[in-house]
């Protein structure tokens, strides 16, 4: 019995879970001087979902969305220097 939900949960091996992992993306919040302010790790079902989540992070600073070593998109913030 699953102690969190109170219902019987099937046992799944770690290797099966690893095969079904969702892609990981990183959103970097970029300061007006071009340096990284902070990073947000995103676990999304696909690239479109990652772009939607990254776009939601945009405020005054730009946000760069990365998958591994590849920049997917840069979303512009409202800062006049960003």
Features:
82 residues, alpha+beta, 20% helix, disordered N terminus
Q: Outline, from the CA principal axes?
A: globular
Beta-strand portion reads 25-35%
> What order do the SSEs take from the amino end to the carboxyl end, as H and E?
HEEHEE
Derived structural class: alpha+beta
Percent range of helical residues: 10-25%
Radius of gyration: 17 Å
Low-confidence stretches: 1-5
- Total strand count, please? 4
Q: Can you characterise this structure?
A:
It contains 2 helices and 4 strands. 20% of the residues lie in helices and 33% in strands. The protein is α+β, with helices and mostly antiparallel strands. A 4-stranded antiparallel beta sheet has the order 2-1-3-4, covered by helices on one side. It has a domain at 22-75.
């Amino acid at each position: 019995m699953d102690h969190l939900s109170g219902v019987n949960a099937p046992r799944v091996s770690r290797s099966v879970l690893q095969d079904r992992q969702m892609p990981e993306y990183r959103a970097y919040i970029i300061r007006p001087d071009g340096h990284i302010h902070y990073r947000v790790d995103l676990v999304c079902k696909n690239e479109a979902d990652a772009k939607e989540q990254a776009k939601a992070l945009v405020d005054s600073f730009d946000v760069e969305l990365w998958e591994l070593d590849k920049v997917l998109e840069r979303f512009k913030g409202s800062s006049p220097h960003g």
